[in-house]
Structure formats: structure tokens, C-alpha cells
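Q: Hi! First time doing this. I have a protein sequence and I read that you can turn it into a structure. Is that right? Here it is:
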Amino acid sequence: MTSHLVDTLRARRGDASRLFIETADGARITYAEADRRSAQYANALVALGLRPGDRLALQVEKSVEAVFAYLGTVRAGGVFLPLNTAYTPPEVAYFLGDAQAGVFVCDPASEAVLAPIARAEGVAQVVTLGADGQGTLRAAADASRTSFADVPRGPDDLAALLYTSGTTGRSKGAMLTHDNLASNALALVDTWRFTPDDVLIHALPIFHTHGLFVAINATLAAGSSMIFLPKFDPERVIALMGRASVLMGVPTFYVRLLKSPNLTPEASSHMRLFISGSAPLLAETHREWRMRTGHAILERYGMTETGMNTSNPYEGERLAGTVGFPLPGVSLRVMSPESGEALGAGEIGMIEVKGPNVFKGYWRMPEKTAAEFHDGWFVTGDLGLIGPDGYMQIVGRGKDLVISGGYNVYPKEIETEIDALPGVVESAVIGLAHPDFGEGVTAVVVARPDATLDEKAVIDALEGRLARYKCPKRVIFVDDLPRNTMGKVQKNLLREQYKGLYGS
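A: Yes, that's right. Below is the predicted 3D structure, encoded as C-alpha cells:
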């Protein structure tokens, strides 16, 4: 048995002397060099005590070395756990403890704060890796051998653990297998017509499914190359379009690119594909992009637990407001939440998915896992419909999940923090359409009559307690929250009442 994911990603590569990554400063790394560097990281991690099945948690800034750490972890048989760089120390402590991580990689600047937290959660080894690619893990890799015999892992073995948000309780760890990641990468390569000649502009973070598994795994599986940017810079991206062919982005990217006068049909003429995901793309953005560039953005639908599920067609009409058709090997159905029966075209219900992309279950949560599957189908929590033309349309989320800037935010965590503030009676957090972030996190708060709270006071109190993307962009004060006869807050009424708050 060999390393299933690694072997799958290598299968179509061809010549190892081909370019894999070009960095922002012009450094060029071939596939052969990536093999050597990831081997060094695998050797270093094994020396640190990483065993097959152990979790390696990593919270660092984006760098090529972080990519090698990911590949080295998988080659060593470990389970990769990327953490958002915006997570606060208390949040990191929860993830490390829940995942029972064996190794934690953090930024050198955060080591003094995070190392004691990690050790308190039982982490055996804490090493560092900075945005400049330097740190104690890099030093250990540099001193390690450049060859490594990949640890045997099968299709059903875990390759990654990604934490995802729900509407109640703490974040849940989605267990992704080698076959989950490998099958999804191959399906995307075929659906989006990736070839070794493609050059991807990579401007996404790599602690997220989109930037890590969609972008990097698809590039590896196609044997293509990418221009690896530390962050999204609209003018830099436009300047690179002349020698690239694909851009993967979130709606925020396209909104900001449209603000540049340098975005023209000529500037984008060399590009063959613009992909958007992680949050709903406004139909207005879709139309304006087509008018400005002559290209139709391809929108797709995925989630942490499944990778990508659907895609608008590469050839054929890309309908604004839809997410297209199921990927090869993936099955979707829309079910009635009341009767549990399959619904027909045009009827709104709960989206369920089945396929090799669907995760193994939630880490250490067998009861939650069982509750989220129905006859072998994963219940996504998303409400949608399939039109008469077969295009899937997402119309809402049954779990009140908020997706802001491509990041999942669950209201309960924020409500708990707000409710604990002096002077607050209760709160409800909702997502409202936002032209830049897809959805803006919005708090509706009931304050005590004698309280002196205002919007700024609430937002300031949450800073340092929550990652910045979770903090409300606006706070609205009301006398009471709307409730149904069972006493449940009717968030749908709040969303309707304040739907124009951000001007969208």
C-alpha cells in the first residue's frame, strides 16, 4: 500500500523538471525541488515524533514552506490541521485540545504566547515557521535528508482534519480521508479542463479548503503551475493576468478587481477561467464582470465536509445565481425537511450529497456524525432547488450559518460573547447581504433599560475575544427579538427587516 493522496497527485504530473511554484519575489520551484523539500519536512516531522495518524496543527502566515509542511505531513502519514491565522489564543487552545495534536507549528512572533497554551493542551512538540519561511521547523527540514519513503496510507485513512462551524456548540472537526481529497482534485481537474500548461494565480489563504485543497491539490493533480502571492492585491493580480490562465477567488476578490480602471478586456485576454466560491456571488457582480472583461465567472458550491460538490459548466452557460451541476462521481438530491421525501424540480428543500468527496464524519462526535447522515447521504444544512434545466441554486441555510468573506461564522459563539457583556439582555447574530464580504456579520441586541451600551462599545468588547472576521460589522439595538410560539427567535424576520443595511 502506498500514500494514496500523494500518489494520486503525482500520477498526471509528467516531467518533474516542470515549474510548480513561482513566488512573489520571482523564485522558481520545480516539481522535483518540491519533492525534495517535502521529503525534508517529512523527515523532520518524523524526527519530532509525528507518527502515522497523528495530527499536526499549523497556524502560520502564508508561505511556500507552509505548502511543503502540508505535503510533508501527508507523506509522513500524518493528519494535517490548518488553523485560521485570525484565531485568538483561546480558540487555538480549543482546537489543539480537541484534536489532540501531537505537533503544533506557529509563527515565531506568537511562540511566547502559544507555546504554553499548546503544552497545557498536551501537545508534545511546538515548532515555528514565519511568513519569511524561517523558523525552527524550517531549520529542522534544512538539516534533513532530501529523500523519504512515503508512509503507506490507504484511501480511507485520514489526511486532514478541518474544523467547521455549526449553529450550536463549538466547532466540529471534519475528518477528510485521502480519497476524499484525491477524488475531488481529479474531478476538478477534469471539470475545469486543467492541463500542465495552466498557470494559476494563487492569492487565497491556505488554511481554508479553497486555497489549500481546491487550488493546490488541483494544481498538483494537473501538473500545472501557480504564481504564489502572499495575499490578494488587485493591481498585482491584474498585472499577472497577462502570463496566467486561471484565477480562483472569493466574491470579495471580484468586487475589488472591478473597482480598478486597469481591469479591461485586454488585461484579461490571456486568461481562460475565473472561478468564484466560498460565498454567494451577487448576480450584479457576475454581470458587471462579463461586461468589463468578456469572461463569465464560473461559480461552484462546496463545503468543508465535502470539498466541491457542484460547478457551473466549463462549456455551456454559466448562470448567475446558480452553482451548476454535480461534479463527476457526486450525487445531489433535494429533500423535504418535513416528509423526508425527494422533491421535484423547482421545489425548495434540504440539499443532501453522496460521493467519494464526502467526509468520514466528525472527529470524536459519533452521535453528531450519525445525525448528519440520512441513508448514506450527508445532510448539508443548505436549502436549495434544482431548476428545470438541472442547475442547482442555493437559496439559504437551514442552520443560520453566516459566510463572511469566505469564512464560516456560527452565530451561537458570537451571541454567547455578547450576552456575557454587562448591560446585555440577549442577542441574535445574523448574516446580511454585503457587497464586499458576501454576508456581513450583524448583531441584533436587546440591552437593559439602564445600560449605556452603544455599537462601538459592543464591537470593542469583542476584539481579542473573537477572530476579526467573526466580529459584527454592525450592531443594532432593539427592544425585543421576534419569537415564534415555541419561543425560538425568528432570525428570518430579522434578516428581512434589515436586509438593506449594507446597501445591497
